[in-house]
Amino acid sequence: MKSDNKIIIAIDGFSSTGKSTIAKALAQEIGYRYVDTGAMYRAVTLYAMNHGLAGDKGNLDAKGLVAAMPEIHIGFRIMPDGTQHTLLNNEDVEERIRRMDVSSKVSYVAAIPEIRRALVKMQQGYGTEKGIVMDGRDIGTTVFPDAELKIFMTASAETRAQRRLKELIEKGHATSFEEVLANVAHRDHIDQTREESPLRRAEDAIDLDNSYMTRDEQNAWLLARYREAVKRVSTSN
Ligand code: DC
């Protein structure tokens, strides 16, 4: 049975806007499940790389990858410290899927309609009981068009590249600002122009430009939007 006041929270936006950071913080604060859909596309990309289906020169065997989908099992594991790790066929790939080589190929994989349909179906399955915070690109438009709260996050490409660079350096992955900025801009372009459910702001989404906001300010802002949404839902019931 669905808990009456539980809602679905969809957080979409450009890459490296910090969607997962605020989505995770909110989920933890309100006791909801968090699902990182970008990690699912990244895990499929890693599978393609490991099985010779995605080469270094942008060549991707889309047919082969679609045919392999029944062999690709994606899951999540909650770690003792409360963080969530992505599993690919039961192997913990959390760290691996964040590297630049995966980042530079994932948009091509995420543009394959059959792959999107399979992952969207899984994502919709996670939301049947509501009480979920999901982040991605098409959550408010395609995965949960009826989500009770939709947020669309933006920040300038330079701000996002700076954040991503800091993250990568902290993890010990050598790269430059220029390389990261080029990757961010390239992914924006592919994400916005692909045929199948492109990155698009849902009409009823609330905008959050966090270029000049601290994490605490963003968390407080999102919590306030959540409380308003729950109030709206409970008064309309
Ligand atoms: O959020 P992220 O950077 O981990 O996402 C990785 C890629 O997956 C990104 O290029 C966009 C794509 N993606 C998507 O197309 N749809 C989603 N719901 C989530 C991510």
What can you tell me about this protein's structure?
- By secondary structure, the protein is α/β, with parallel strands linked by helices.
- The protein has a single domain, classed as Rossmann fold, CATH 3.40.50.
- It is built from nine helices and eight strands.
- The chain has a five-stranded parallel beta sheet with strand order 2-6-1-7-8.
- A hairpin with a 2-residue loop joins strand 4 and strand 5.
- Helix 1 packs across helix 9 and helix 7 crosses helix 8.
- The longest helix is centred in the last third of the chain and has 22 residues.
Question: Any low-confidence stretches, pLDDT <50, length ≥5?
Answer: none
Strand order of the largest sheet: 2-6-1-7-8
* Total helical elements: 9
Helix and strand run: EHEHHEEEHHEHEHHEH
Query: For the report, how would you describe the main beta sheet?
Result: 5 strands, parallel
Mean pLDDT: 93
Whole-Å distance between the termini? 16 Å
| Helical content (DSSP H or I, runs of 4+) | 40-55%
Total tally of structural domains: 1
